[in-house]
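TA notes. Do not distribute before section.
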Amino acid sequence: MKPLRIGMVGYGGIGRVHAMAYRSLLFHYGLPADRVQVVGVATTRKDSAQKAAAEIGCEFYTDDVRALLDRADIDVIDCCTPNKSHEAILVAAAQAGKHLYCEKPLSMGMADGARIVSAVREAGVQAQMTFNFRFLPAIQRAKQLMESGFVGRVFSFRGRYYRASYIDPNKPISWRQQKSESGGGALVDIGSHVLDLLYFLMGDVGSVQATLDTLIKERPAAAGSSEMVPVDVDDIALMHVRMADNTLGLVEVSRMGTGTTNQLMIEIYGDKGALRFNAEDPSWLEVYDVRESATPSGGMRGFHRVETVQRYDGAKVPDWSHAPDFVRSHAECQYQFLKALSEGRAPSPSVSDGLHIQAVMEASVRSSERGGWVSVKEVLSEVS
């Protein structure tokens, strides 16, 4: 891999994860320290930028994104900011000739997302979304099985992402619960991940029928404050989803899933087999083979756990037998992006993929507001 130098914009919780992953991937693949380097960081305040630079181990820090984009020693801009600022940062970075690595979701809405996609195309730079769950070995194995026809004709599917992030009504409001800052609630925040996995495994989404609801309608402005602020985004989204090939399934998303921690699940049922995955048990993919069970005595009927653990091609450490974790999935997502840049290939998932997921979420919002099914193509056609 040729040396690639990164400038980070934003350094909250996910920014730290990205920085940690960049550092770790050098060890995962036995790469020299100069192959992947974070050389600068920009945040909204000079003091937080200075602290971030000290943690990352880079010399340059700034509260002016333009100063980061103007540096000739930066090849890639990694955008880890709140959703509201994605479009301005990514368009400016593309126009500055930088490759882009963007946290999900792509943007606040379709118009912003389309401008990002156009800017990338016009500048001739490469861009990738951070849909890191794609890069768990169990999901990669599921993709192989889907492409090989293991499942056969898909009858139905289910995607579910539940967290208990906001069950406490006294938890202060955050930017993630204000539409002007986030563009949406649970659907945008965690639903984008489960929608991307279904898209990755099964192809384009055709249409949706959705109900979005806000369960706690106001929250304290700050810890201990008596001032209450309205919550104007969804806490839960329940969706019927029809894929472009007409396959019907269900998607459930909630940040009010009492008792759950980070419960991301995928189930796909077909005429020849079935697949199940639970991110809380990431070392395994569950598979069911109809042919194996079609014997008079039942044979080996039932779901079987396929050992996927940490089987990353070319990885040197940790040993493949160890369970993968969240940061490792980010490191692999970054590695495949940087490897594609080094080899002159288009990376995946692209910002166009991110725009498709944005359209699915927009269709879901429209469906909830007006009732009935909404076509994803209808939404995409408005920005094409």
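Switch to the second chain here.
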Amino acid sequence: MSKLYVFVLLTGFLMTIQFSAFSIGKEAEVFENVAYAKVSPTQVMDIYLPEGEGPFPLVVLIHGGAFKMGDKRMETRNAEALVAKGYAAASVNYRLSGEAKFPAQIEDCKAAVRFLRANAKKYRLNPEKIGSWGASAGGNLSALLGTSSGVAELEGASLGNAGVSSKVIASVDWFGPINFCTMDAEAAALGFTGRTNGESSPESLLIGKAVQSAPELVAKANPTTYISADDAAFFIQVGSMDRNIPYSQSRNFYEALKPVIGASKVSFELLEGAGHGGPQFSDSSNLAKVIAFFDKHLK
């Protein structure tokens, strides 16, 4: 299978994105551009199914891109890895910050989960075995899915399937921003200079104003705010040389989760020398770690 690697430079973000060839293999059945809501043409996803009758455990894939760009096709490689191991995968597009401000993005992700659970029989899914996986901005959204089940103000119930749960039971967070207000100070403490979370930063554009002037909004976008004992299991990975999202963000999130959900349900790994994405995350040996995490909690 051919692959194309693209380096995308965003405001404050340099991220390695891997696109696989559009077909992910004869063993997969793909439903493209399935609408999960009707407010925006952005609210579509691609659903990948392995061979067989199912019902299959499902992982919802959430792309990165600083909340302001990116596309569901960025997750083709991860969808392929999941399908090869007997999982269904749903790669979700969501409203970006240029179209809608927070909490539109997590509302879309929750609406997608509700749609998939409501249509589980149609797509041969196991509605009791749903997880999430995202990188960078997608990592924040995956983490929010994992901690904010039942939080009405993030649910976006008007987007459809309001009576259906948006809960996920396993969440992978790859280098997602957690506390927008402390990112600059944490980066400086780690010796990463030059980061400025001002009015034009991705996080400020997401919430609609400079993050330092809106601590209440920032708290609502922080997955730590919603931690409770019944949260999803978590696998958190971040690079030690990530100059965009200081790795202490991920470590602090891990330390907040551990005493509440239990050490057996959360793990944290610092990938030495890795930056904001790249081959240390996407190589087959690391993908095997992610699959093993999902095997433990979704199978």
